[in-house]
TrEMBL record:
The keyword Cytoplasm does not apply. Residues 119-222 form the OmpR/PhoB-type domain. GO terms for molecular function: phosphorelay response regulator activity; transcription cis-regulatory region binding. GO terms for biological process: regulation of DNA-templated transcription. Residues 119-222 bind DNA. This is DNA-binding response OmpR family regulator.
Length: 227
């Protein structure tokens, strides 16, 4: 695996790079400036990106948005910024996971492995997921049946009806019967999607094809059949 580490903390980056190379066998390229990454010929060719939010040049959130326009690679944020609004901002931009510094290197490695299971290309691209509306279960291609919450079921019905096309945040919120609170961007959708992903990941090692689509919403990148 090739990985780009974008962080201006030189000491942290050096030791994390050493750990990932020696303990995980990952080919790491370090960038202490987001502009340095974007100027590199291989900028959009990495298998994975570890991104800090407070960077010289383009800030971390904008960098994630740029990456999402050009690559489906895994993106994990490792940052000292806290708060639910930060979580929403980075997940909406297209990050797959958000870790708060200080964080152990082993936790970073586990996050990379978890996200890779989700974003790696499936061996059978046409494997069908099924949503059983009577039982309220999601049936994974490997046969696993996952009991869903009502919100989960509504979201998945929306994705099934979209037929693999992106679904806007507005459409998903309407399906859930929610509105964006006046004067606030915190509509809770990012957290709802995150909980759905985690529910599936805990039940099966199968790749979860639910991905964010920067500036649009979300997309379920696999056949999803209503039964």
């Amino acid at each position: 695996m090739t990985l780009a580490l974008i962080d201006d903390d030189a000491e942290y980056s050096e030791f994390l790079t050493q750990f990932l190379r020696e303990q995980q066998g990952i080919a790491v390229s370090r960038f202490d400036d987001s502009n340095a990454l974007l100027a590199a010929p291989e900028a959009f060719s990495f298998d994975f990106y570890l991104v800090d939010l407070m960077l010289p040049g383009v800030n971390g959130v904008e960098l994630i948005k740029i990456l999402r326009r050009r690559t489906d690679a895994g993106v994990v944020v490792v940052s000292g910024r806290l708060g639910p609004e930060v979580f929403r901002e980075v997940i909406t931009a297209g990050a797959d996971m958000y870790l708060v510094k200080p964080v152990q290197f082993e936790q970073v490695a586990l996050a990379i492995a978890a996200v890779q299971r989700r974003v790696a290309k499936p061996s059978a691209a046409d494997a069908v997921w099924k949503l059983d509306r009577n039982s309220g279960e999601l049936i994974v291609p490997d046969g696993t049946r996952i009991q869903l919450s009502e919100a989960d079921r509504q979201l998945l019905e929306c994705f099934a009806q979209a037929g693999g096309e992106p679904v806007t945040r507005e459409a998903l919120l309407a399906r859930l019967g929610r509105e964006v609170p006046e004067g606030s961007e915190d509509d809770g959708l990012s957290a709802t999607i995150y909980r759905l992903r985690r529910r599936i990941e805990r039940a099966t090692p199968t790749l979860v094809p639910l991905q964010s689509k920067s500036r649009v919403g979300y997309v379920f990148r696999a056949p999803l059949q209503l039964i």
